[in-house]
Write a structure and sequence with these properties.
By secondary structure, this protein is an alpha+beta fold. The protein has three domains: 1-31, no CATH class; 35-293 and 323-382, Alkaline Phosphatase, subunit A; 492-653, Galactose-binding domain-like (Jelly Rolls, Sandwich), CATH 2.60.120.260. Helices cover 19% and strands 25% of the residues. The chain has twelve helices and 31 strands. A ten-stranded mixed sheet has the order 8-7-6-5-9-1-10-11-2-12. The protein is globular, with a radius of gyration of 27 Å. It binds calcium ion (2 copies). One calcium ion is lined by residues 44-45, 84, 238, 290-291.
């Protein structure tokens, strides 16, 4: 039975005995003191085998290992997704990333962030009287409304997104103005809501672990008399890795090992500060990571051994993260937990520990306190959904993992980079359902689907319920429970459009995730904002656009305007040609205007391009708009060779 509830019951009983008066203020001083402090240390791109107790051999991590020796280590602990923003959004909301629509890795040009309607861990704990601080990488939106202070944190020092989102080349010198990286603004170091410094060089990067650690230590000292939640999401060991002077060359095994030693030092500083302030017995420390190693960075990446693949894939090397927890007196020392658990379970676990109410909106996490306490036969999370970028890649129940057909980023068969330079990605394909027994085959090498059809069927049902709930871009399914991200462009503008209510035929398929309100989106009199994820845009991936509007009557003297979004950072390009034609019979079309858009140059702006023509002295009933997509992203672009997008929101006829 749950200890927190027990103590609440006995408190209630004591109140009854003492009479009504003493019940008026249940949050007594004693109660406050007994609330544990929570320290959550979150490493970026850490490999499963990058700490000593999980198999690192090149260097030692005595402080992290100490947490394991004095607490529990989880062998089957998952980040919700093998990429930064999605993983962090899930951690802080207790939801699969798909439920709250924060996917991928946001950057300096993103228009979305964590929705203010969501309740995240610090907001929940603040209501319980906790002081809350974050020192490190946020990555849930860099606009002010998304930054930590607007979401329940009292204090923040850190980077708003990844440390490689900066105008600096892989060699550490300012990026060439022709290169994609030169698009980035200087990488800001933020305190509360203010930029206080710029991270401009590798020397600046080398200070980050120390800065975050010192801030965290100060935070603990400042709040030693009340319960606190300290979130320490390090920028390391995400590339570009860098280490301070005190650890340079210390491992003798290269820069990555030095950086890991510094991360371990940071953990030691936290433990030491807790001890010096008499807080270590009443503090839960959790050490985990957002996703596995970025293996194409070679010697600047960690190792996921013995797991398959790494960051960006949902083979175990992507989401399974080495996790240790220490809470003296509560978590039995030196224990190992092999049950499934996830970062999304931390929010409800913290709620149980602190007596906080769960968020009003539905979440996916379950309390794993029984696992932490070593309760025999406890298994609060029997299954796990492996989503990546809106795609349901796999599901797990107990020891079985069912992998659905999909293509994935692979690190197999390609030469990794060296010394900070990335190597290329390979591409892997799963063409038929695969089944793995993770209890015997942690490396996912032996597909057992044909031997266990009954287990395949069982897990398929779990997949179906995931899809019904949270959707699946592989099967073009929308989930019933998916919520919106936070957005900065909210105003919707209504315009008059003679074509509203008329017939429209769209000849090419738009992507279901950018499907607005269906075909009528283009003539509904509502225009899109600069945010391509708002519901007013239709997105066409790697295809042209051809639209025919039937005005159902002959008319003349019309103005025709069509609008396209340009947001090259999100792979959305201007059409290279727009042709507007008209017809009275729907068969014989007369071209009235061709716009040739010459340049595919780099464009830093997010903008809406309008193509407008007056059609005079011509009878019109049918209007055809054809827009030519550049089809593939140009060579200079980040997504070179990938499919380019065309986004259109309205064809206005007046
Ligand atoms: Ca990461
Ligand atoms: Ca529209």
């Amino acid at each position: 039975m749950n200890k927190i509830k027990l103590s609440a019951i006995s408190l209630g009983l004591a109140c009854l005995l003492l009479g009504f008066q003493s019940c008026k203020n249940p949050a007594s001083k004693d109660n406050e003191i007994s609330k544990p402090n929570i320290v959550l240390i979150f490493i970026d791109d850490l490999g499963y085998a990058d700490i000593g107790c999980f198999g690192a051999t090149d260097y030692q991590t005595p402080n992290i290992d100490r947490l394991a020796n004095e607490g529990v280590h989880f062998t089957d602990f998952y980040a919700s997704q093998a990429v930064c923003s999605a993983s962090r959004a899930a951690l802080l909301t207790g939801c699969y990333s798909e439920r709250i629509s924060v996917l991928g890795a946001l950057n300096a040009f993103s228009n979305i962030g964590i929705n203010p309607e969501e309740t995240i861990i610090p907001e929940m704990l603040k209501k319980q009287g906790y002081a809350t601080g974050i020192f490190g990488k946020w990555h849930l939106g860099h606009h002010k409304e998304f930054l930590p202070l607007q979401h329940g944190f009292d204090e923040y020092v850190g980077l708003p997104y990844s440390n490689d989102m900066w105008p600096v080349g892989y060699d550490g010198v300012p990026a060439d103005t022709n290169s994609w990286k030169s698009n980035y603004p200087p990488l800001p170091l933020i305190e509360d809501n203010r930029v206080i410094d710029t991270i401009a060089t590798l020397e600046d990067q080398a200070k980050l672990t120390t800065i975050y650690t010192e801030k965290a230590v100060q935070f603990i000292k400042n709040h030693k008399d009340k319960p606190f939640f300290l979130y320490l999401p390090h920028s390391m060991v995400h590339v570009p890795i860098a280490v301070s002077e005190k650890f340079k060359g210390k491992s003798g095994r290269g820069l990555f090992a030095d950086v890991m030693m510094e991360v371990d030092w940071s953990v030691g500083e936290i433990i030491k500060t807790l001890e010096e302030n008499g807080l270590d017995d009443n503090t839960l420390i959790i050490f985990t990571a957002d996703n596995g190693p970025w293996l194409n960075f070679g010697n600047h990446a960690g190792s996921a051994d013995p797991l398959r693949e790494g960051k960006g894939s949902m083979w175990e090397g992507g989401p399974r993260v080495s996790t240790v927890m220490r809470w003296p007196g509560k978590i039995p020392a030196g224990t190992e937990c092999n049950q499934i658990a996830s970062t999304i379970d931390l929010l409800p676990t913290f709620a149980e520990i602190t007596g906080a109410s769960l968020p009003e909106k539905e979440i996916d996490g379950v309390s794993i306190l029984p696992l932490m306490e070593g309760e025999k036969d406890a298994n609060p999370r029997e299954q796990f959904y492996y989503y990546y970028g809106g795609k349901l890649i796999a599901v797990r129940k107990d020891n079985w993992k069912l992998v659905f057909p999909h293509s994935y980023r692979s690190y197999v068969g390609v030469e990794p980079g060296m010394n900070g330079l990335p190597g290329p990605y390979g591409k892997g394909i799963v063409s038929e359902i695969e089944l793995y027994d993770l209890s015997n085959d942690i490396s996912e090498t032996n597909n057992l689907a044909s031997q266990h059809p009954e287990i395949v069927e069982q897990l398929k049902i779990i997949g179906d319920s995931a899809r019904a709930e949270l959707g699946d871009r592989i099967q073009n399914k929308k989930g019933r429970a998916v919520r919106e991200p936070g957005r900065i462009y909210k105003e919707k503008e209504k315009i008059s459009n003679f074509a509203t209510g008329k017939n429209i035929l769209i000849k090419n398929m738009y992507a279901h995730q950018y499907s607005g309100n269906g075909d009528e989106t283009l003539i509904d009199g509502a225009i899109g904002s600069l945010d391509f994820t708002d519901k007013e845009w239709l997105g066409f991936q790697g295809t042209d656009v051809e639209v025919i509007i039937d005005l159902k009557e002959k008319t003349k003297d019309k103005q025709i305007e069509c609008r396209f979004l340009v947001n090259q950072r999100s792979w959305i390009f201007s059409p290279e040609k727009v042709v507007i034609s008209v017809s009275v019979n729907g068969k014989d079309y007369k071209e009235v205007k061709t716009f040739n858009i010459a340049a595919r140059k780099q464009n830093r702006n997010i903008e809406i391009k309008k193509f407008k023509i007056d059609v005079r002295n011509t009878k019109v009933r049918f209007i055809k708009v054809q827009a030519k997509n550049i089809i593939t992203c140009p060579n200079w672009h980040d997504g070179a060779g990938g499919k380019a997008w065309l986004f259109i929101d309205e064809i206005i006829i007046n």
